[in-house]
Amino acid sequence: MLDSNKDTIAAICTPLGKGGVGIVRISGENSLSISLKFFKSSKKNFAGIKPYRLHHGYFISHQGKILDEVLLAYMPKPGSYTGEDVVEINCHGGPAILQLILEELLASGARLAKPGEFTYRAFLNGKMDLTQAEAVIELINAPTKEAIPLAQQKLQGLLQQKIQTLKKDLETLRQEFCVAVDFPEEDLECLPPEKIQTKVQKTIEEINALLTAYEQKHLYQDGALVVIAGKVNAGKSSLLNALIGKERAIVTPIPGTTRDYLEEYINIQGIPVRLVDTAGLRETKDEVENIGLQKGLELILQSDLCLLLVDIREKFSTYEQNILEKIPHHKIFVVLNKIDLSSTMPKWTENINPKIPIFKISAQTGKGLKELSKAIGKQLLGTQKESSSALVPNLRQKKCLEKAVSELNLLLQHLFEMPYDLLSVHLDLACQHLKEITGEITSEEVLNQIFENFCIGK
Ligand SMILES: Nc1nc2c(c(=O)[nH]1)N(C=O)[C@@H](CNc1ccc(C(=O)N[C@@H](CCC(=O)O)C(=O)O)cc1)CN2
Ligand SMILES: Nc1nc2c(ncn2[C@@H]2O[C@H](COP(=O)(O)OP(=O)(O)OP(=O)(O)O)[C@@H](O)[C@H]2O)c(=O)[nH]1
Ligand SMILES: [Mg+2]
């Protein structure tokens, strides 16, 4: 353990801004002695700090001035969030007062905590494993309410348990391998390859269920990129405004109104969607507009779904042709706009790939928008089969699971031709990848990557 992991650390753990109450948290050996230098109880017959009680009193600066009226809580080790002695000072929630209190503590022997360091200590002290630490940040970052139960299950340790079970199954199998290797002449002890095959296949299936769950649910956490493309004046900015429900983008009858791209986040059936309005295509010598167009094009190519908006009265042009050629059909919707001005289905729509859905809307009257929004959600969620797993790994965990599966597949591939001692290497590696998920095996690089994303005070 690094020396710095023994420091007493402090940080403001409520958001920086005005709030009813703000909390400064201190963790480590000296957390109580440091806080007691500043805390003065309001009780006349104060008999000392008791664990898990809120004590009313005052935070007195080193110059003897009352900085604030506070409530102080003490949670001794090991029964605290970090597993160390923790003190929380609840003061009034203003950024300046919180900062003053923190500075007093820092001048008195505490060190400013790094982002995620409280949770990192909880991990080091065995209060939680890596899947739970990652669930903490996932919960804080949950963009919509649909993401909350996914994070909460992991915070409660359900993913950790699942991984432990998978690992134990493989370890048991590994032992049976050893028996076969150590006593090759005793047929009895040797598990026949068919039995091994069945067991490994079962583990692969269980891991695959987790991987399917990732494919299905990561959208709720990571969100999706939906880009509105179309020629000038098609009504792209009007559509963005209509979908987000406010006048965000400038709309005018002048072609070329939007010269850069602009974006807004909306919640479509629980999916956090980054909705982008691009500059409409037209020949231009304006350098600014050309850069805007280029950026828009890049976004269109990256998008999870492109809404190709066309004025229903307009002819099909090389612009639409281009987009339809560049983007796979399952990532594109053709959207005919301004149906309040004409309801005739243009002839050119007969010639486009029948797999591409066509919608008819009016961004101005709102007609057809509900159907469009519903279809966007459905399209993004995809048509994958329901996963049997309610547990959803994150990207890092998914990568470990994929590596584990690939080792197990290698094992199956060579099961009938290679000796058990060589095959067992794949089992060991598969186990290692599972241990990386929970943090039983870990590297500084992985830990840094995880805790870097935390906020200070968590
Ligand atoms: N004020 C405050 N609110 C908070 C937290 C906190 O640290 N402080 N939390 C976190 O940021 C979350 C709650 N999580 C927590 C998890 C464990 C412990 C804890 O002390 N656990 C002890 C058992 C305590 C007991 O049983 O009485 C333990 O695990 O041994 C505290 C908070 C959300 N709200
Ligand atoms: N009648 C009618 N007019 C619309 C509709 N949608 C947009 N418009 C009008 O079409 C014109 C262009 O709309 P914008 O939303 O600015 O079009 P845009 O695609 O963003 O245009 P650029 O930013 O220039 O590329 C404006 O005058 C809008 O009021 C619609 O559904 N019906
Ligand atoms: Mg526009």
Automatic annotation (TrEMBL):
Residue sites binding GTP per the record: 233-238, 252-258, 277-280
Free-text function comment from the UniProt entry: Exhibits a very high intrinsic GTPase hydrolysis rate. Involved in the addition of a carboxymethylaminomethyl (cmnm) group at the wobble position (U34) of certain tRNAs, forming tRNA-cmnm(5)s(2)U34.
Group of enzyme by EC: hydrolase
Cofactor(s) this protein cannot do without: K(+)
Chief localisation class: cytoplasm
Cofactor note: Binds 1 potassium ion per subunit.
Catalytic activity, EC: 3.6.-.-
UniProt-recorded Gene Ontology molecular function terms: GTP binding; GTPase activity; identical protein binding; metal ion binding
Location of this chain's protein in the cell: Cytoplasm
Annotated ranges, domain TrmE-type G: 223-381
Name of the protein in question: tRNA modification GTPase MnmE
This protein's GO CC annotations: cytosol
GO biological process: tRNA methylation; tRNA wobble uridine modification
Gene this chain is encoded by: mnmE
Similarity remark: Belongs to the TRAFAC class TrmE-Era-EngA-EngB-Septin-like GTPase superfamily. TrmE GTPase family.
